[in-house]
Design a protein that fits this description.
Blueprint (H helix, E strand, L loop, with lengths): L1 E4 L2 H13 L8 E6 L6 H14 L4 E5 L7 H4 L7 H6 L4 H9 L9 E2 L4 E2 L4 E2 L5 E2 L5 E6 L11 E6 L2 H7 L8 H11 L1 H4 L2 E4 L7 E4 L2
Parallel strand pairs: 2-8, 2-9, 3-8, 9-10
Antiparallel strand pairs: 1-11, 4-7, 5-6, 10-11
Helix pairs in contact: 1-2
Length: 210
């Protein structure tokens, strides 16, 4: 692999160009920007919206943080259980049922943009939206790779262990073992379609095969 340094804007534009070339005729493309909370994957996903719309593709933004399970399930083993954070926090079935499957083969394009309000610990009661054919889903979140979710293209924001520790808030340090396990078991850098070195988000670097 060789490193291709890019500005944040150039990276978003490059990835948007790739996405445009992969949107199926009469269908949708489901894109995930995967990264630890410290990497703020939503920032890159947001930056891709404008170039995609400029290219003529409708976009629906969704965050995996809006598809977490209720507190009674997430926190069953305590508020700082890394194993639960790793496998049990995300409502995978809800995300697939309400977002990913409707944008897959045979889907109707009808998407629920959010399901659960974590702060209030109740359903968001969001209204469904219609994403027209030719549209792109931009999903951001952590620990998304290796779950068997039907995603068409994945971008992984890679943080070195040192950068991950430095950039993780003190009250979230308990999640660090989950990211160690993720690297060891799901191999996101090998599994993602695109890997971006993200230790300094002002100077991202795209990993390009030789």
């Amino acid at each position: 692999m060789r490193v291709r340094p890019l500005t944040p804007a150039a990276l978003a534009g490059y990835l948007a160009e790739v996405v445009v070339g992969r949107v199926p005729e009469g269908g949708w493309l489901r894109v995930a920007v995967d990264g630890a909370a410290a990497a703020e994957p939503g920032v890159l996903a947001d930056a891709m919206v404008a170039p995609l719309r400029t290219a003529g593709h409708p976009v629906q933004r969704v965050s995996a943080d809006d598809f977490l399970r209720p507190a009674s399930v997430r926190l069953e083993h305590g508020r700082h259980d890394a194993d639960s954070f790793y496998w049990s926090w995300l409502d995978e079935k809800g995300l697939q049922r309400e977002v990913l499957d409707p944008l897959g083969p045979g889907g109707d394009g009808r998407v629920l943009p959010s399901l659960w309000d974590v702060g209030r610990d109740r359903a968001t009661r969001a209204a469904y939206v219609e994403l027209p054919p030719g549209g792109v889903l931009l999903l951001d979140g952590a620990l998304l790779i290796g779950r068997g979710l039907p995603i068409d293209l994945t971008v992984h924001l890679s943080l070195s262990p040192g950068a991950l520790e430095r950039r993780t808030d003190a009250d979230a340090r308990w999640t660090l073992p989950a990211y160690d396990r993720y690297r060891a078991e799901c191999f996101p850098e090998e599994s993602a379609d695109f890997v971006v070195r993200w230790d300094d988000p002002r100077r991202p670097a795209l990993m390009v095969p030789e």
